[in-house]
Amino acid sequence: MPLSQTTLNTLITRLRKVLPQDSLLNDAETMRPYECDGLSAYRQLPAMVCLPTTVEQVQAVLSICHELQVPIVPRGAGTGLSGGALPDDAGILLVLTKLNRILEIDPPNFCARVEPGVRNLALSEATRPFGLYYAPDPSSQVACSIGGNVAENSGGVHCLKYGLTVHNVLGLKIVTIEGELLTIGGKTLDAPGYDLLALLCGSEGLLGVVVEITVRLLPCPECAQVVLAAFDDVAKAGAAVGNVIAAGIIPAGLEMMDKLAIRAAEDFVHANYPEQASAILLCEVDGTAVEVSEQIMRVRQIMLESGAFEVRTAKDEAERALFWKSRKATFPAVGRLSPDYYCMDGTIPRHRLAEVLTRIEELSEQFGLPVANVFHAGDGNLHPLILYDANREGDLNKAEALGGCILQLCVSVGGTITGEHGVGIEKLDGMCMQFKPLELSQFLGVKAAFDPQGLLNPGKAVPTLHRCAELGAMHVHQGKLPFPELERF
What we know:
Layout: H1 5-16, E1 24-25, H2 28-31, E2 48-50, H3 55-68, E3 72-75, E4 92-95, E5 102-106, E6 111-114, H4 120-127, E7 132-133, H5 146-152, H6 159-162, E8 169-175, E9 181-185, H7 196-200, E10 209-216, E11 218-219, E12 223-231, H8 234-246, E13 253-258, H9 259-269, E14 279-287, H10 289-305, E15 310-313, H11 317-328, H12 330-333, E16 340-343, E17 346-347, H13 353-367, E18 371-375, E19 381-382, E20 384-388, H14 395-412, H15 428-434, H16 437-450, H17 465-470
Parallel strand pairs: 2-4, 3-4
Antiparallel strand pairs: 1-2, 5-6, 6-10, 7-11, 8-9, 8-10, 12-14, 12-15, 13-14, 13-18, 16-20, 17-19, 18-20
């Protein structure tokens, strides 16, 4: 329900005293660019948009909103894919992109301090002269912000070996709903007390607003090489993933693309992907020149033994970069195949890849919507892209229903409804599938401890028990799996 005119007027008057003139937007046209994040199927204008330039301004905004009981939705670069930054029409959208300074690069301690609006790729570019880089590298790294990565616990193509954002963050400064500034963690390796750092990574703006991040930096590897393996069957490619890991090799990245994704990426980037393949794997290893050379030979052999009909090693650094450029451009490239697509994000145990991909293909035929698969195969993080046309009546509903079935499938084989995109509003019903009421009550209790009035990003990430009760017939944990032919584990 929109704010009353009296509250709105008071809010505007108070905020204008603490924000620069160009940092407060409250007319429809100037707010339009902020009405959705990357999940553009849902749109909503906020009551107003705030773009603070200092931590003190963030504190003042939250303090005012707390006093007036006005909801706040934090937003980074807007590249999120779960509706986590969808505005509230009765609240403000707190956009943090102007807090974009790299505050410190500390090579001796292999870390850096940054503001939340710093772009992911910009950090690695700034640290490269020191022989260092920041490991998490989402496909949107050219645009996405470090603060948004923390909110969603983002991963990327190299998260198999180097971990998600949570494994690469050493400290945070957050502003609470009351406007208080808290420091959690830092440059030291450990601290007494509860691990609040892990709790805040992936909390989707429900617990506090991140205003500074201390990140772990890694030395740039001496050598990196990538193998491209082409398969005539998706199941064979899925089995090859498990075979590589079972051989004791932990690749820096192990990515998979199916035929539709290959076609889209090749038409867009021209990386010379084998378009006749049903699936390809990109497997990168890094380290010293000697260990990379040895592991590349083993990976090539494993791919051939797993049924690959073609195995290619990038001939030089330029081709290696081209292979990865094409993979990271697949999401926008798929737009060449369909007017719209709906990107899912589930995670499954690696050994179930082949059967889950086969089942997704069956579901695609059942719903009459093509699905392009491109994902982090090494850690089982799926990204099925459901192709549809929003201008065709019923297509969006079908795409959402198909996406729900895919998430049910992931849970039924012992997986989860999200690997790195977060829950947002998109997967609220999926949370009801995955968690029991007692577990959800604990999540809600943590939320209440940080934000008793529920003003921070309301209606996101954790569903109410009432909502889940209404969806009870769909609950996987009630004993009826959506796909009885698949065992739970």
